[in-house]
Amino acid sequence: MSDRDRERLFTSSPAPVVASFEELEAEPIIRREGSLYADAWRQLRRRPMFIISGILIVILAVMAIWPGLFTRADPRACDLADSLLRPSSQHWFGTDVQGCDYYARTIWGARVSITIGVLVTACATLIAVLLGSVAGYYGGIVDTLIARLTDIWFAIPTILGGIVILRSIFSTRGLLQVSLVLIVLGWPTMLRLVRSAVMATKEMDYVDAARALGVRNIRIIRRHILPNAVAPVIVYATITVGVIISAEAALSFLGVGLQLPAISWGLMISVAQNRILTAPHLLLFPGAFLSVTVFSFILMGDALRDALDPRLR
Amino acid sequence: MATTLSRDAVAGRPVDPAAPLLAVEDLHVEFRIDAGTVRAVNGLSYTLRRGETVAILGESGSGKSVSAQAVMGIIDSPPGFVTGGSVRFRGVELLDLPEAERRRVRGDRIAMIFQDALTALNPVFPVGWQIAEMFRMHRGLPRKEAREKAIELMERVKIPSARTRVGSYPHEFSGGMRQRVMIAMALSLDPEILIADEPTTALDVTVQAQIMSLLAELQQQTGMGLILITHDLGVVAEVAEEVVVMYAGREVEKGPSLPVYHQPAHPYTMGLMDSLPRRDVHTERLQPIKGSPPDLLAIPSGCPFRPRCPYTREICTREEPPLAAVTPERVSACHFWEEVSRERAGA
Fold first, then answer.
1. What distance in Å separates residue A46's CA from the closest CA in chain B?
2. Which CATH number belongs to the domain containing residue B268 in this structure?
3. Would you call B124 and A36 a contact, using CB atoms and an 8 Å cutoff?
4. Measuring CA to CA, which residue among B300, B305, B302, B304 is closest to residue B318?
5. How far does the CA of residue B26 sit from the closest CA of chain A (Å)?
6. A228: chain B residues, CB-CB within 8 Å
């Protein structure tokens, strides 16, 4: 091949034609489609699973914040003369041993459950996001320390650990103490999730690109990694609210959670167990509310997962 | 661009006015993984001057991208380590800078664009936000002003109706437009060097040409130095003054691009040329280089290209060929470079 051939070969560039292609690529402005979350929202709005669980959660939240909207009766105004009445038009859910209106108590019970569920999940998620993103992003010795500590912590069973801690450390057990114990025992699973999501996102090209453009590590985590890693965390946190609510109920049922005179579904079920044959409504109503609540959050978590995880679409 | 920062210092150190824009010397990078030590870059040297383009050419795994990451200082460490050599930006040694100062050089003085702009843009933020981030972060501009700057830049890289598209997300753009967004981000702070890591590989041919001519145009406007990492020989011949051919982490041939093309002095370069589809010669099949690049964990003794080389002789198994001066500006790492270059001399 002669030099001239080569010259021709390498100068046979399409470059001069470029101007005419410029218009070709000037695509029409497409409808604004929005981000992953806008997409997810559009999809969620049409899903019965999301709508049902959403409505239930809203009702429960309103119940927790303004129980007065649902019942005028005072859950603590009890008349022993009315002990163990069956459900009637006056007492919709009957009365308990003390003669308290059981409907009012069941409604008021939502407050404790929802508060603990949301508070514990929020705190555990915060811990998990902070530690998990540091461990997942920086790796190395920091990661080893955090991950191994998590593994050890993870090995403590929630209910068993809860019993031990609540019985040995606290003399009084109120909402704060129970929440604290559940936070302490609840963060490891969440942390593992955040850590692995961060590690996966860290490998994305846009994280390299951000580094190549001189973005600080903290900002990379905040702006480039967490927003892209948060979807599974949202899903899991939603489910966790339900799980924590049932854990609180379990602890209260076992007598190591909340104490009377607190009003909680777990406590109500615990008291009801002795009279399951004579007064089954005492078990039935708080049990049903508890189940529906836990069910709503888990259903919501599933709906969110379907919408946020593109792999399942 | 409203740059108030002095460009006569790098991370507080005065620049050497006589020094070239970028001088990479004997760069070594290795990855220490469980299976052993991968020597990804083994003694790479090149010099980039203002307004010039250096092309780094090689197959996947030849170390070309890693060498660029080493220049940027974004190699994941561990497992990656720069084990030797020097990278001097206007005379200032970058490898000695503490990470915080190194970071300030990135984006501001040396910027980089990536192969696949879809994955190199954050999917959850609008493109305008991402371009504006550069101004907010490095220059501390307020949100609104940064946004105006972003629109300006999008117009500069010829994104049509930039003002209406500034709020669009990366997935709403075509491949070529995304690469333009990436280029806009990289050029936002008027870097003196742009590293383009296979900027056109993910694009189709017509768009490739547009992007290359856009880069050339921007380079003329700004006088920046361009490091073009590619495996596309055609692209190199058009835009690069200087070419470095890499194989198994080593530079095997280096020199001004036209002479290297016209008369390769290394069998690998020649193999690359012969494997090109050509319009002027009708052949039934393309002629690939036989064999495949070596496993970097088990580089053959002697010359790494030996197992695939038609010129291979006994000495090739024993001795790794030194860089021989073909002309004062050219080197080739082949024992038989004279024989190789004669092949094409009179043809």
1. 22
2. 3.40.50.300
3. yes
4. B302
5. 22
6. 122-124
* Separation between Cα atoms, residue A283 and residue B140, nearest integer Å: 62
Q: Does A41 touch chain B (CB under 8 A)?
A: no
Task: Give the residue among B53, B46, B66 at the shortest CA–CA distance from B249.
Answer: B66
Question: Which residues are B10's β-sheet partners?
Answer: B13
Is B225 part of a structural domain of the chain? no
Structure tokens at A281: 């409504």
The complex scores an ipTM of: 0.78
What single-letter DSSP state applies at residue A101?
Answer: B
Chain A residues whose beta carbon lies within 8 Å of the beta carbon of residue B133: 215, 223
Q: Whose structure tokens read 């017509």?
A: B206
CA distance to partner chain A, nearest, from residue B173 (Å): 9
The backbone torsions φ and ψ at residue A232, rounded to the nearest 5 degrees and listed phi first, read -65, -30
Tens of pLDDT, residue by residue over B140-162, are 888 888 888 899 889 888 888 88
Q: What is the mean pLDDT of residues A52-56?
A: 89
What number of C-beta contacts closer than 8 Å exist between A and B? 134
- What does DSSP say about strands B193-197 and B225-230: parallel, antiparallel, or unpaired? parallel
Number of domains in chain B: 1
Name the strand (E) or helix (H) holding B48: strand B36-48
Asked if A215 is an interface residue toward chain B (Cβ–Cβ < 8 A), one would say yes
Q: Which residue among B74, B138, B234 sits closest to A208, beta carbon to beta carbon?
A: B74
Q: Does A24 touch chain B (CB under 8 A)?
A: yes
pLDDT of B284 strictly over 70: no
Per-residue pLDDT tens over the stretch B326-336: 888 889 888 88
| Arithmetic mean of pLDDT, B256-281 | 80
The full set of domains in chain A, from first to last, is 37-312 (1.10.3720.10)
Q: Is residue B26 assigned to a domain? A: yes
Per the structure, the complete domain to which residue B33 belongs is given by: 18-98+230-277+285-347
Handedness of CA A51, A53, A56, A58 (dihedral sign): negative
Q: B78 preceded by cis ω (within 30°)? A: yes
Question: In this structure, is residue B340 part of a structural domain?
Answer: yes
pLDDT at B194: 92
Contact between A30 and B172 using a beta-carbon 8 Å cutoff: yes
Span A254-298, pLDDT tens digits: 888 777 778 888 888 888 888 778 878 888 888 888 889 888 888
Q: Which residue of A has its CA nearest to B159?
A: A26
Q: What is the phi/psi pair of residue B327, to 5°?
A: -130, 175
CA A292 to chain centre: 16
Q: Do B57 and B230 contact (CB within 8 A), yes or no?
A: yes
Q: Which tokens in the block code for residue B121? A: 């843009």
Joined together, the tokens standing for residue B307 give 């197992």
On whether any CB of chain B is under 8 Å from the CB of A9, the answer is yes
Which residues in B lie closer than 8 A to residue A1 (C-beta atoms)?
Answer: 281, 344, 347
